[in-house]
Amino acid sequence: MRGRFSPKGMTEVEEMETRGVRSAVDLRSDTVTRPSQEMRRAMMSAEVGDDVYGEDPTVNRLELRAAEIFQRAAALFVPSGTMANQIAVHLHTEPGQEVVCESRTHLFNLEMGMAAAFSGVQLRPVATETGRLTWGAVEPALRLADPYNKARTGLVVVENTHNWAGGVVVPPAVTRDLMRELRQRNVACHLDGARIFNAATALGLPVTELTAGFDSLMFCLSKGLGAPVGSLLVGEKEFIHRARVVRKMLGGGMRQAGILAAAGLVALEKGPQRLAEDHDNARYLAQGLSTMAGVRIDPAMVETNIVVFDLSESEFDAPHVVAKLSERNVLANALDPAHVRLVTHCDVDRTRCEEALFALRAVLERE
Length: 367
Prior knowledge:
- There is one protein chain.
- This protein is α/β, with parallel strands linked by helices.
- It folds into two domains: 12-36 and 274-366, Aspartate Aminotransferase, domain 1 (Alpha-Beta Complex), CATH 3.90.1150; 39-271, Type I PLP-dependent aspartate aminotransferase-like (Major domain) (Aspartate Aminotransferase, domain 2, 3-Layer(aba) Sandwich), CATH 3.40.640.10.
- The protein has 15 helices and twelve strands.
- The strands form three sheets. The chain has a seven-stranded mixed sheet, with helices on both faces.
- Helix 3 (57-70) runs parallel beside helix 12 (258-270) and helix 13 (275-289) runs parallel beside helix 15 (350-366).
- The radius of gyration is 21 Å and the shape is globular.
């Protein structure tokens, strides 16, 4: 098990269980994972320096390794995926322009209106059935031909996997078609690849094939890969040089950040190898949910580690179900009145998923 070390050398979870206290089955997000013992050892022995001066050797190694994996010129370590996305928006656009994105994206729903506040741009959300942003969906939303009446499109943002769409994967054929059309129109395209390694695992493809051609991309270390903190923004050398300046503007210039980067290096090297287990557990949850009264979910549509189920035909709404699950030591998130999200990760094994299904059935069928 993973977690905080106790004075006896046990993790927080192990110590609780020796006292007969069962930890919660936390399916709210894959951001809740605790660093592994290997990560903690790496953090403890990390070689550090001042990263604002470019002098932290562990951060430098992490950035170099990320650039190598994605076959790009450079990368930048930042505290969060939101910061990485907002740096990209700032660099690819000018004030008064628009950014096209899918209507359920993180950029539109969960980044606090920062694109407007910091970069002076507005977002134009495009609703799709699956969450996949195809050229057919994007083309009608572009504003390129009327410079005197309409805000010009400066950027398109793709999210892969798509969180609120249920962790769906955007295949490379879709993104290649989209970027080919955007390049012909001189419109940049940024990839919010917070869970891009989940997408690569689901498709059995290298991340380079899923990210080729994007003007910039970001991915998170602190989600499925299991690190405690951090994301990487990846792109060409000049873009990353400018991104470093914007990171400082946003307060993201860190000092002896090698302590965090050390855990990130372990996550980057070891994390992708076990993501298939999370996907299997998510499908297991979906299959169990599909047999419960009032639940609408197609297990075949669960592609990665995110399960979103529909309660519109249930007598209970999503906030009620989430509250009752909490009473049974299972944590989940309500996306809206009708939808609950569960996210599997390295701290929730099959046994804990079985416990979650037992609690779900008790809440949905026995109350």
